[in-house]
Amino acid sequence: MPSKTTITTKILIGMVIGLLSGSLINAFGKDIAFIQTYLVNGLFYVVGAAFVNALKMLVVPLVTFSLICGVCGIGDVSVLGRVGLKALALFILTTAIAITLALSVAALIGPGQDFANAQPLSDFTPPPAPPVTEVLINIVPGNPVQAFAEGDMLQIIFFVIVFGIAMLMAGDTGRQLAQSAERMNEVMMKVVTLVMDFAPVGVFFLMAKTFSEQGIGLVMPMLGYFSAVVFCLLLHFFGTYSLLIALMAKLNPAVFIQKMRSAHIFAFSTASSNATIPVNLQIVEKRLGANNAIASFTIPLGATVNMDGTAIMQGVATVFIANVYAIDLSLSQYVTVIGMATLASIGTAGVPGVGLVMLAMVLNQVGLPVEGIGLIMGVDRVLDMMRTVVNITGDAVVTCIIARGENALDERVFNDPSAGIITEIELPHKKTHL
Question: CA–CA separation, 71 vs 50, rounded Å?
């Protein structure tokens, strides 16, 4: 491809070719042993899984150094506290809106009512969900080294924020460490560049593997549920986010959505909020004009605690499973679902497929049969890709709102169509203090 082709275009081409290739294999090569053994479960699986592992490799060090730079870039503990409280409040607000919207739409559409009789359709056995008290206690790491080794993002974020605050309070020693963290962050962004050079190839194999196994036709028996989730995702994406961007950030929603395209394509391809952190960080800073100090703090935090798309899936799936098993949900149960899905989204790791485990927790709480999850497992991978797009968009929306409120958003960058258009993932600008 020409050297001026943007990374977005390359990834989009890889995604489309992978989708078409996978769909053709699903349609015509499903029973051919050679194709299944050496292509689908061989080449496609190995390269796709290796690419995802390479992305996961980036997450912990990138979040660590990025958050330290964000905390130190904000430079004032009181401002940091204000930004943190704003971020959490907005994340909880958007998630609560998402789940309420999903329950309302699902109650009106009634997906699952046409199922003649329900029966256990899966041997899916979720791990027991921890009580809410344990989730809250486990935010504080008993062993930070173990948290880093296991990639427990909530515990890592908690420790790094506390460590960053201590750096601010340590004077010259803290400033020297902050400078070292900035240099490490630049090196990590160079590692991101190396991995992202292979993104179009990795995305092709991921899409080819997914659609060679799933196939477009798998959606048809579950069209009611699938359509309800997609409708809610689109409504939240174009409705809620556009209103928030227009009213709270005073920015043009159409420009915002257009500039987020690279992150959307990448999120759809990987179905992982965490894997999309480096792309989302760069888009928010260089394309949308948010100050790096704000973006470095809110984007990694949002990828861990802000899961609007997952909350929407949980809301629609709850109503769907209740309809399938002919169980009427009371108003108090609907309120319980809203609360549980909001809390569950905070405890949901930004990796593919984890939404099903959190859904099991919500179903248990309102007394619905967990085996009903077997009904939706077939189409969940495709929906997972779509809801990841919503998840990362919510992170960018909240970042822009906070940056606007803190006078840390460059509107000239936001309104410049060519700002931040790149052919690769570049190094970040020099960190600036608010």
Answer: 32
